[in-house]
Amino acid sequence: MAVWVGVLCAIIGNTLNGVSFQMQRYVHANNAHREPYVKFPLWWIGLICMLTGEIGNMIAYGLAPASLVSPLGVVGIVANAILSRVFLKEVIPTRGVIGIVCSVAGSVLVVLGAPESDVSTSIYENVVSWEGLGLLCVVLLGCAYIMNPLRLTIAISDDFANTYVVCYCTVCSLCGAVTVTSSKVVSTALTQAANGDYTEFTSGETCWLTYTLAISMITFNIYQIRVLNTALIHFESTQVMPVYYIIFTSVSIATGMVVFHETSFDPVVRKALLFACGVALAFVGVYLINSEKTPATLVKRNTLLSNPEIRDDLVRQNQK
Q1: Where are the domains of the chain?
Q2: pTM beyond 0.70
Q3: What are the pLDDT digits (tens) for 64-81?
């Protein structure tokens, strides 16, 4: 029963995220006088929708396997595509309609074939393990290699990162591995607290992990948003969204299977095939939805170019 509640929370949360994105896009697209967007009530309603959606996703991670919740992010992309017709009067092309059908079908198959978590070990034991340490090392080293804050010659250069969208999307996805892990632990602790068990917040053996991961969840989420916005400066959203979704979902599924041992398919063959086909269909659907540029893409680019800092940055890039 808890898993189905988690699925419902994920669907509602991702739908609200899609609503939020469209509300904020509508504000930016119709702000002809370039007034501060915080003056528009609709923008704040969108922000509230986004925060509520993220809370729904966090609850979902505590009730359902991460390998199940992450692919359901496709619901947000489908909602975004449909709501763009309502808010921005965009025409959904035929490939987009096919993509929506594929995404919905993929989501159903993912739910039907999702693996179960290994309940023989606790969340604390799963995270405080060699697998958890290995995940953290991969995330930190991978982000450092791609973003190259020390400007090392052996790491990836800014020019290379600004040429291939996969670089920024990989950094966001690696950070997502930490946010998924943190969200699952914090949500589980909150769920237990709601049932009267405050061990994860009061026990000296485990409370440090709960608070540390709560801080990590906030920190890595902020960094993800920053990197994702940098990607949207250098690339079209139609390039960023499908690549980011595919890499993030793959990383999240791997995180769930490695750290939380979400590898129990029963019956093995049928459920594993359903899950694999569902993820593949979701990937195809996301690609089709974002494969054709729409007028909103041009609106978004014009909005970005209206920002002097972004415009100057693009001019400097063209002069290189």
Answers
A1: 118-261
A2: yes
A3: 888 888 888 888 888 878
